[in-house]
Structures are given as structure tokens and as C-alpha cells.
Amino acid sequence: MKHQIVVLFFLFIQLKGWTQPYTSENGHTRHRFAQLNIGLDTRLFSETGTATYVKNSLGEIEKHNIDNSIESRILIGGTHFWGHVDFCLGIPIAHSKSSPFYTGVETAVKIFPWRIEHKKLRPYLGFTWLPIYFKQENGTTYNRFKFPITTGFMYARKNHLIELSCGFNYDNRAEYYISETEKKNIQLPKLWIGFGYKFMIETTLSAEKNWQNGYTKKLTDTLATLGRLNGFTLGIGPSAAFFLKSSAYNSETAPYADQHKGSKVFPEFGLGYYLHKPDVQINLSYRYIKSELQAYNFTQNAYRKALTFEIMKFLADYHGFAVFAGPAISYERLSVDENLGSQSRQINNEMWRPGFTFGWDIRPNRLQSWYLRTNLRYFPGLAVEMTGGKKIAFDQLEFNFIQFVLFPGRILGK
């Protein structure tokens, strides 16, 4: 999946040039509102202030620090609000195998009081939505979502961005089972420093002149009258799902294995039809979502296959930041595959569930042949009933990080 993401965004680079369009003399136009960027970073999580516990060969409990951890990531994001805000996804591609601590796909927001500009060093303050993981010996993979604060400096030169960053996870304490029956309060890494490089990719500035002289509006009105701006859409992008409820069944059966908290990153596929005049997207979306718990003699896999029909109405457009929302109905196939010692079972459930979709497009004008979309979904009441009547909850918040939405008819001129 990580390789597919890289290929997709390097394809963008081949299709379009890049520059730095938000400059003070050009004003706050919609075609300078946001820019795509892509890059790499490396960061070090310090062992300072960490603590964990292990049993030695004599059965005695020993206290240790958690080793320093280094990770490298692909960065995909965009500068918004004319260089005052940077939204970014950090997708790990490598981390220290010697450390039991690592992170997942991070969603970061960085706010620049003084906007990013050419040959200027700019400070920022931000926060992140960070999945953290910790796995010790044969214990479970502890997974939680944290909201660290970050700060640092960004230096811009033409289309290049160089960043020095640091972060602080103030909520670093956790309860962890060091055996099937004994748990300890541990302290996970809370401080890190990082160094990254990104380059900005400009994809819409060439349309600014036609927008300002009125040609874009005339062409939009003409094509809309002819029905040429309606059309089929294809979408693909990386997503994740976050469990919103704990399951009483897991708490009773294997408390040492913890709860399902987050899925693996998965691709989302969409087939839809766009109606220009009402500004409505009709969409059929498919996702295959997986989560795993494994500790000591217990393994539990939770699977969800969802085929969703949704209607999204665009509600507002702020300089090309177009927000939508709407109802959805989903056909759900849920499955739990479990092994406990010598016992194994698989339990399935199928259902229809209503839900809700919300999100936004980066849409400088309504003539483009492709857009970048972010969306969130929620379907309440998803569950599988296990032996004994207790349930495993599948209520999830789905987060489609960034989706490439294509209008094939506009490319083909149909």
C-alpha cells in the first residue's frame, strides 16, 4: 500500500510543474490557497523519562528504559491558507527493530503566525493525531491515539521546504500486561526531534488568469448548460478506521490482549456520478478493513467489508476549499476469527446500516479533470455477537486521508 501511495503522487509530479505561488504581491486568490507537497523525514524518539518492566529468568520483575527509536516516513500534505497552515500525513516506512515502540500514520497540523515565504525561516506551533504502538516480547500490541503538541522551524527556498521539528506527548503513561495475569504502569516515549524535506507541487496556478478575466465562469456556464460538467468519477486513496467502542467480550475473555483500536491502512475505491447544477456527488464506495489482536495464546482478527451508497451535497466553498456532507447506507459483512489455545472459531454477521459522510475537496474551479478529496464516515450499531451473548463492537470512524478523484469524461472530452 505504501508503494502505491508513492507511485500515485510521483505521477502528479510528472503531470504538473511546481513553484511557490503565494506571495504578498499576488494577493489571496483561490488558485494560491493551497499547494500539494511530498517528502521524507526522520525522527528520533528519546528514551528519556521512559520505563517498562520485564520478568527475568528467575521470575523477578526488572525495570528498564525503552530504547531510543528512529523512524523514517513519507510525507504527503499541503500548505493552506496562503502558507499559514500546513496539513501533513506522515506514513512510516522504517523504524528501529530494537525498540518495542513505534508509530502509525500521523495526521499533523502546523500553524505559522508568519506565513511560509521564499528564503525565510518561519516558526510554527502545531498538534498531531498520532497512533502509537508498543509490543513487548509475547505481549499484545498496545495501540492508542495521542494528541501531542509540536513546534519547530520551516525554511523555504523556491519549491523546497526544510524542517526542523520537535514534539511532546504529554500523555505517555499506559497500563500494559507483562504476562497474562500481571499488568504494570509503563511510560512510553514522550519527546522526539525530527528533520524533514518536502517539495511543493503546483497544479492549479495556470488557471488563475482565466478565472480573473471571467473566461472560466463563461466556459463553466456554457458547459453546464450543455450538461457537459455532469459525469462519472473514479476514486482511490489510503484510509484508516478507528474503533470508537470497547468490547465487553474481549475484557472478559482476554483482557491481556487489549481492545481493537485502529485498523491497518487500507485502500478505498469509489465509483460515482457528479451532478454539476445541484453540486451533488453520488458515490459507491468499497472498503476492506482489518484489525488484529495477538498476545500469548490468544489471537483475534476482526474483518469488515463495506459497500456504501452515499449522496454528498457540497455546502460551502472557501477559496476552493469545498465542504460536503450527506447521508449514506452501507451493506456490511463483519467477521471475527479467533484462536484461544486449542479452540478456534469464526463468527460472521451481515447487515444494512445507515450512516453519515462528511469531507472536503480541494477544488479551485469546477472544470478540472481531477480533484483531491478527504472524507470521514460513521455507521453506528455495527457488531458481531460472540459465544455467550457478548458482542465485539465495530463502530468505527473512517478517515480517508487523501483521495484522488478522476473525471474520465473530462479527460476524453465527453
Walk me through this protein's architecture:
The structure is a single chain. By secondary structure, this protein is mostly beta strands. The protein has two domains: 2-201, Porin (Beta Barrel), CATH 2.40.160.20; 228-412, Porin. It is built from five helices and 24 strands. The chain has helices at 2-15, 208-212, 215-225, 248-253, 408-412, and strands spanning 35-45, 52-55, 61-64, 69-80, 85-95, 101-103, 106-111, 121-135, 141-146, 149-157, 160-168, 173-177, 183-187, 191-201, 231-243, 266-275, 280-295, 298-318, 321-340, 343-362, 370-378, 383-385, 391-393, 396-406. Strands 1-4-5-7-8-10-11-14 form an eight-stranded antiparallel barrel. It has an eight-stranded antiparallel β-barrel with strand order 15-16-17-18-19-20-21-24. It is flat.
SSE map:
Elements: H1 2-15, E1 35-45, E2 52-55, E3 61-64, E4 69-80, E5 85-95, E6 101-103, E7 106-111, E8 121-135, E9 141-146, E10 149-157, E11 160-168, E12 173-177, E13 183-187, E14 191-201, H2 208-212, H3 215-225, E15 231-243, H4 248-253, E16 266-275, E17 280-295, E18 298-318, E19 321-340, E20 343-362, E21 370-378, E22 383-385, E23 391-393, E24 396-406, H5 408-412
Antiparallel strand pairs: 1-4, 1-14, 2-3, 4-5, 5-7, 6-8, 7-8, 8-9, 8-10, 10-11, 11-14, 12-13, 15-16, 15-24, 16-17, 17-18, 18-19, 19-20, 20-21, 21-24, 22-23
Keywords:
Porin, single chain, eight-stranded antiparallel β-barrel, eight-stranded antiparallel barrel, 2 domains, 5 helices, disordered N terminus, 10% helix, mainly beta, 57% strand, 414 residues
